[in-house]
Amino acid sequence: MNKCALILAAGQGKRIKSNLPKVLHKVCGKEMVNHVIDTMRVAGLDEVNVIVGKGADLVREGTKDRNVSYSLQEEQLGTGHAVKCAKEFLSGKKGVIAIFTGDAPLITADTVKDVIETHIKENNGATLLTSIIDNPTGYGRIIRKDNQVEKIVEHKDCNEQELKVNEINAGMYCFDIELLLSSLEKLSNNNAQGEYYLTDVIGILKSEGKKIGAMVTEFEETIGVNSRVELAIAENILKERINKKHMENGITIIDPSNTYIGADVEIGQDTIIYPGNILEGNTKIGENCVLYPNSRIANSTIGNEVEIQSSVILDSQVGDETTVGPFAYIRPESNIGKKVRIGDFVEIKKSTIGDDTKVSHLTYIGDAKVGSGCNFGCGTVVVNYDGKNKHKTIVGNNAFIGCNTNLVSPVEVKDNSYIAAGSTITKDVPEGNLAIARAKQTNIEGWVEKKSSKK
Ligand code: UD1
Ligand code: CA
């Protein structure tokens, strides 16, 4: 038996007013359609087909690392027509197809698993998710007879009686694949919107005597995002859910309403997060860390017992017991060791910094490989760019770089060497040497007095 998923993502999403296809808008840092794809996978549906249409190339590009297949719906003639466009994907398969929409990112894997299990256990032709809400305006209504689902009627096609029904179609279903394929052939577009409605399949199957199941679900899980306002609502709900999960795992979040953690971020136990932190993408934070206020950390791996304050860390690694900030900027492809100090107004770019090295203040290190146990004085600059090309600087272990030093790349500073403050280093410094590269100081005796007597 096949178990697979279809995700509808061909619609235009007019109300979001964007050049970007609606399903690529992000909620907690991840595209809505990718939330849905990932949820399908967690629910055990490995084979996922995405129906694309409006902005198809962008949607393909935005989902390219998700290992899904695609069906193309060139013209958007309705949700039933969209599913018809996946005929090639469906034909020859037997079993269950779960159909979800790319603009409803809050559905949970537990609910998806539940609906599939119910569908199989009850031997249904179709099983749908529904919600009960106070204001059902705009949604398809679930019409029941003797408590059994008879059909779905779209809002625009409802009569007065049907408009009063407050059980709505979530737009999420399981179908028997063969029954779905045969019913799709019977759809007509004779309705208020002139569209081929997927929802009509329910009435068709019912009239053929097939079993229709329905699972009432929290409305919060089924919310579809049609506008920026709804995008922000979804963001808030997911944010709360993510923060709650981390708190339940033993992480302290001092002000959850002001803490923004991406859907895929991992955090170790006993880490404390102050307000204003934004943790994005594929970020991992270790145990016992303290994230003081206002940092942005994206796609980075942070070790255990690290302290970070008011800094930006992108696509990098930071080792155990290191401290970063305030006001440090660690740019992509940096690898910071253990027990390192990256202090205020320090920028590190595409560099390796060895264990126990201290870069305490006002320093730029770019395209460099720095060993362990070094000390960078205040105001050191690695001069990595000659106006055309970037060059590499290598600093060995236990080097002491005096304040206000320029290291003009390419240059190598060997182990256990010293550089005098204010030096501009253009030649390699051998092991154990002191390098001084600055003009000698001259003191001119009586100069001040002479100057004032001239007046
Ligand atoms: C749909 C349901 C409605 C349900 C509601 C839940 C139908 C006819 N109606 O209405 O019963 O209450 O969802 O949110 O299914 N899409 C395509 N191709 C198309 C048309 C739509 O891929 O030709 C996609 C859209 O991108 C979207 C999804 O299908 O992701 C739903 O389409 P939408 O137009 O938003 O349907 P609703 O009017 O909301
Ligand atoms: Ca919708």
UniProtKB/TrEMBL annotation:
<dbReference type="GO" id="GO:0006048">
    <property type="term" value="P:UDP-N-acetylglucosamine biosynthetic process"/>
</dbReference>
<dbReference type="InterPro" id="IPR029044">
    <property type="entry name" value="Nucleotide-diphossugar_trans"/>
</dbReference>
<feature type="region of interest" description="Linker">
    <location>
        <begin position="229"/>
        <end position="249"/>
    </location>
</feature>
<feature type="binding site">
    <location>
        <position position="226"/>
    </location>
    <ligand>
        <name>Mg(2+)</name>
    </ligand>
</feature>
<dbReference type="InterPro" id="IPR005835">
    <property type="entry name" value="NTP_transferase_dom"/>
</dbReference>
<dbReference type="GO" id="GO:0071555">
    <property type="term" value="P:cell wall organization"/>
</dbReference>
<feature type="binding site">
    <location>
        <begin position="8"/>
        <end position="11"/>
    </location>
    <ligand>
        <name>UDP-N-acetyl-alpha-D-glucosamine</name>
    </ligand>
</feature>
<dbReference type="GO" id="GO:0009245">
    <property type="term" value="P:lipid A biosynthetic process"/>
</dbReference>
<feature type="binding site">
    <location>
        <position position="226"/>
    </location>
    <ligand>
        <name>UDP-N-acetyl-alpha-D-glucosamine</name>
    </ligand>
</feature>
<keyword id="KW-0677">Repeat</keyword>
<feature type="binding site">
    <location>
        <position position="140"/>
    </location>
    <ligand>
        <name>UDP-N-acetyl-alpha-D-glucosamine</name>
    </ligand>
</feature>
<dbReference type="InterPro" id="IPR050065">
    <property type="entry name" value="GlmU-like"/>
</dbReference>
<feature type="binding site">
    <location>
        <position position="364"/>
    </location>
    <ligand>
        <name>UDP-N-acetyl-alpha-D-glucosamine</name>
    </ligand>
</feature>
<feature type="binding site">
    <location>
        <position position="349"/>
    </location>
    <ligand>
        <name>UDP-N-acetyl-alpha-D-glucosamine</name>
    </ligand>
</feature>
<keyword id="KW-0012">Acyltransferase</keyword>
<dbReference type="Pfam" id="PF00483">
    <property type="entry name" value="NTP_transferase"/>
</dbReference>
<comment type="similarity">
    <text>In the C-terminal section; belongs to the transferase hexapeptide repeat family.</text>
</comment>
<dbReference type="GO" id="GO:0000902">
    <property type="term" value="P:cell morphogenesis"/>
</dbReference>
<feature type="active site" description="Proton acceptor">
    <location>
        <position position="361"/>
    </location>
</feature>
<protein>
    <recommendedName>
        <fullName>Bifunctional protein GlmU</fullName>
        <ecNumber>2.7.7.23</ecNumber>
        <ecNumber>2.3.1.157</ecNumber>
    </recommendedName>
</protein>
<feature type="binding site">
    <location>
        <position position="169"/>
    </location>
    <ligand>
        <name>UDP-N-acetyl-alpha-D-glucosamine</name>
    </ligand>
</feature>
<feature type="region of interest" description="Pyrophosphorylase">
    <location>
        <begin position="1"/>
        <end position="228"/>
    </location>
</feature>
<feature type="binding site">
    <location>
        <position position="438"/>
    </location>
    <ligand>
        <name>acetyl-CoA</name>
    </ligand>
</feature>
<feature type="binding site">
    <location>
        <position position="421"/>
    </location>
    <ligand>
        <name>acetyl-CoA</name>
    </ligand>
</feature>
<dbReference type="InterPro" id="IPR001451">
    <property type="entry name" value="Hexapep"/>
</dbReference>
<keyword id="KW-0548">Nucleotidyltransferase</keyword>
<feature type="binding site">
    <location>
        <position position="73"/>
    </location>
    <ligand>
        <name>UDP-N-acetyl-alpha-D-glucosamine</name>
    </ligand>
</feature>
<dbReference type="GO" id="GO:0003977">
    <property type="term" value="F:UDP-N-acetylglucosamine diphosphorylase activity"/>
</dbReference>
<keyword id="KW-0460">Magnesium</keyword>
<feature type="binding site">
    <location>
        <begin position="384"/>
        <end position="385"/>
    </location>
    <ligand>
        <name>acetyl-CoA</name>
    </ligand>
</feature>
<dbReference type="GO" id="GO:0016020">
    <property type="term" value="C:membrane"/>
</dbReference>
<comment type="pathway">
    <text>Nucleotide-sugar biosynthesis; UDP-N-acetyl-alpha-D-glucosamine biosynthesis; N-acetyl-alpha-D-glucosamine 1-phosphate from alpha-D-glucosamine 6-phosphate (route II): step 2/2.</text>
</comment>
<keyword id="KW-0808">Transferase</keyword>
<feature type="binding site">
    <location>
        <position position="22"/>
    </location>
    <ligand>
        <name>UDP-N-acetyl-alpha-D-glucosamine</name>
    </ligand>
</feature>
<dbReference type="GO" id="GO:0005737">
    <property type="term" value="C:cytoplasm"/>
</dbReference>
<feature type="binding site">
    <location>
        <position position="103"/>
    </location>
    <ligand>
        <name>Mg(2+)</name>
    </ligand>
</feature>
<dbReference type="InterPro" id="IPR005882">
    <property type="entry name" value="Bifunctional_GlmU"/>
</dbReference>
<keyword id="KW-0479">Metal-binding</keyword>
<feature type="binding site">
    <location>
        <position position="331"/>
    </location>
    <ligand>
        <name>UDP-N-acetyl-alpha-D-glucosamine</name>
    </ligand>
</feature>
<keyword id="KW-0511">Multifunctional enzyme</keyword>
<comment type="pathway">
    <text>Bacterial outer membrane biogenesis; LPS lipid A biosynthesis.</text>
</comment>
<dbReference type="Pfam" id="PF00132">
    <property type="entry name" value="Hexapep"/>
</dbReference>
